[in-house]
Amino acid sequence: MQYVSELLGAPVRDPDGRVVARVTDLLVPADADYPVVDAVALKPPKGESRTVPWSALRVLDNGRISLSTDLAQAPAFTPPPHELSLARQVMDHQIIDVNGVRVVRVNDLQLAPTDGTYRLVGVDISTNALLRRLGAARLLNALGMRFTPTAIAWEAIEPVESGEAGVKLKVSHEDLARLHPSDIAQIISQLDQHHVREVLETLDDEAAAETIGEVSPDLQVALIRGMEPERAADILEEMDPDDAADILGDMEPERAHDLLSRMEPDEAEDVRELLTYDEETAGGIMTNEVVTVPATVTAEEALQLVRRQAAEMENVYSVYVVDENEVLLGELSLRELIVADPQAPIGRVMHRELIRGRLDDSDEEVARLIAKYNLLALPIVDDVGRLHGIVTVDDAMDVILPDDWKARIPRVYARA
Amino acid sequence: MTLAVLGPGLIASAAGDDSGGVATYASIGAQYGYGLLWVMLPVTLSLIIVQIQVARMAVVTGKGFAELIREEFGVRWTAFAMLVLLIANSTVTIAEFAGIAAAGELFAVPRFVSVPIMAFVVWIIVVRASYTVAEKIFMVLSAALLTYIGSAIFAHPDWGAVAVALVTPSFQTDPGYISNFVALVGTTITPYMLFYLQSSLSDKGTSVEDYAAERTDVIIGSLLSDIIAVFIIVSTAATLYPLGIQVTTADDAARALEPLAGQYATVLFGLGLFGASMLAACVLPLSTAYAVCGAFGWERGVSQSWSEAPIFNGLYTALIAIGAAFVLIPGLPLIQAIVATQFLNGLLLPIVLVFVLKLVNDKELMGKYTNGRAFNIISYATTAALVLLTLMFLVFSFVGVGS
Questions:
Q1: Quick one: pLDDT at residue A111?
Q2: Are both A313 and A342 inside the same structural domain?
Q3: CA A398 vs CA A214, A309, A393: distances in Å
Q4: Residues 309-368, chain B: which have Cβ within 8 Å of A?
Q5: Which domain holds residue A9?
Q6: Residue A148 and residue A368: Cα distance in Å, rounded?
Q7: Is residue B260 part of a domain?
C-alpha cells in the first residue's frame, strides 16, 4: 500500500540518476470508481512546474522514481476535462462519505500498485494517518500506542472541492442525490455554505425541497436566501406550506415578499395565511393543506375526492368532513374510508367526537394532545369550529425533541 | 440573540476589551501616563487592516482559518498553528480566570472560592450550551466598564496633552517598557479574535456581495473598542499616574473610576470585570476545541458524549481546568499575570500574521481578492515591528539595560 503523502515531495531522477525534480501533485480522472494515476506534476529546483503523463515515469524496484527521458524532453500532459488534482483538491480537504452519511477530512490517500502505475483505492481518515504525516507514528507505536487505520473506499466518496476561486469543477453528486433527504441534510449540515450550494444545484427541486426541509432553521434561511430567487420560489412551492412559512417568516420581509410573489398564487396564498400566526402557537406549526370532503357524499364519492386531493398533499391518513362553511363535523382515517360500505353516507362512517386544537393553543399544548391521544394529526379549528389546518405528529415531535444533529455548531463557536 | 444583532466584527473586537484588555490598558496608563498612548493609533490601524484581510478570506473561501491552514499548508503546519492557538488561548483563559478572581477579591471573595466555583459554572454553561442566556447576563455586566469613558472625562485630564500624546511617538529601552508595549499590541490584536472572526463569518455564509457591509462592521467594531481602550488608559493616567500609584490589584484599577462613580467605583469595576471575564471564559475553551478538532477532523459537538468525541470534550475541559488551576497558584499577582498573558499573545501574534499574509496573498485561493500593496506593507510592517520588539526585549533583558 502506497500513500500519497509518501509520494508527494519524493525526488524524481533523470535517466542518469540525478535528482531533477520533486513530485508536487498526482492527477486522476474524477469520474472513475478507482481511478488510475494519469499524470504527475513535477517541480524542478529552479523553474516552473511541469505536468507529465505517468507513462513517462518508472518506479524502480528500490522505490525510486525515474524519468525515461530528460525532464525537458518529457511529453506534456493536457488534462482532460474532469481531472482531479489529489494534492491541491483532495488531500487535507473535506469529502463526502456517502455510505457513512457524513463529511470527513482526507488525512491521506491510499494507492494500490497496478501494472506499473498506481490506482487510487481509498481515503484514510484516521488519526494514524495524521501521526504518520507528522512523523510521529513510529514513535508512538514504539511507545505502545496504536491507532487503527480507518479507510473509506474511493468509490464510496464524493469530492467536495471546486477548484480555484471562481472556477467550478463539475463534480457529479449522483450517489449523494440517491440518499434519503434526511441523510443528505445531515451531510450538508457539516459542509461550509459554498459547498452546500453546489450540492443543492445538483438536486432537482423536489429533492432539494425535502432536503432543505430537514436541516436546521438557521441553515434553511441561509440556503433559501443565498439562492437564485426563481429557484428558491420553485423549491418553496415544493415544500409543505408550514415549512415554507417557517423559512419565510425568519427572513427579511422584502425578500420574503419577493419570493412569495414568484410562487404559484395558490401555494403563496396558503403560505401567507400561515405567516399570520405566531410561531409558537398551533397556527404557527400547522399545515393548511388538509384533505376535506363535504358531509353530503357517500364513502365512494369521498374516496374519489381524496384521490384527487392526495396527489399534492403530505398527510392523507385522516380525512376531515366539513360543512359548507368549513366547520369541522367529523373525521375518519383513510383505512376506515377504504373498508366502509361504498354507498354509506359519510356522516355515518365518520367519528363525530373529535380531539381538536384551537388556533391560539400553544405549540406545547398541541404536542401534548397529540402524544396523549396517540394521534397522527390534530385538526386545528377557530372559535366557530372552522377547520384551518392540521398539526402532524412529526411537527409535534420537533416541538418536544430538538434533533441533536440538527443543532448546528452554535454560531458563536462556528467553524475551524 | 443580542450578539447576533451586532456583527461578528463588532463581537470579535469587543473580545478585545476583556479582562486582558482592561488590566493591560489600566496598568499602562498608571505606569506610563500618556507615554504609550501613541501606540494606539498605529495598532488600531493594524487591527483594522488585519481584520479586513481575515474577513475577506472568510467571505471569499467560505472556510475557517484553521481549515484553510490545513488545506493549503498540510498537517505539519496545522499542528504548529494549532499549538500556537492552544498556547495563546490557554493564556487568555488564564487571564479571564484571573479577572474573575480579581473581581471576586473586590467583593472580599477569596480566589480559592471564586475560581473553582466559576470554573464549574463555565463548564456547565459550555456543556449545556446555554450560552444565550449567560451571554446576555455577562454582556450587561461588562457594560459597567463603559464607566471608564465617563471617568476619564470626569477626571478632567488635560485633553490637549492627551491629543499631543496620541500623535507623539516616544520610546524607552528598558525591558519593562518593551514588554508593556508588546502586551498592548497583543491585547488589542489577539490571535484568538482573528480565528474567531473568520469562523463566525465563514459560518454565516456571508457572500461576496455582503462583504462591504462586513468590512464596515469590522472597522466600526475596531474603532469602538480602541476608543474605549484609549479612555481606560487616560482615566488611570489622569487619576493614578500623578499619584504614582501602579495598578497591582483590581482595587487600584477601580480607583480610576472614582471621578465618575465615587464610592461605587469598586462595585462597578468588579461587576464589569467579572462580566467581561465570564463572557470570554465561556466562549474561549469551546471555540478553541472546535477549531483544533475541525482542523484535524476529530469528532466535535457539545451534544457528543465523551466516548463519541473524546478529544473535543477533553480539550475544552482541559482548557477550563488549566485556566482555573493556574490562577490558584498561591500568591499569584493577578494583574501582573494578566498583563504577562497579553505579552505572550503579542509574541505569538507575528506567527498568526504571517499565516494570514501567506493565505490572503495566494492567487489560487483568493482569485482577484488578494491584498493590495498598502495592506501588505502595513501588515508586514506590523509583523516586523513585533519581531523587532521581541528581539529587543530579549537582548535588553540579558544585557540589563534599564532606566
A1: 92
A2: yes
A3: 11, 26, 9
A4: 364-367
A5: 2-156
A6: 47
A7: yes
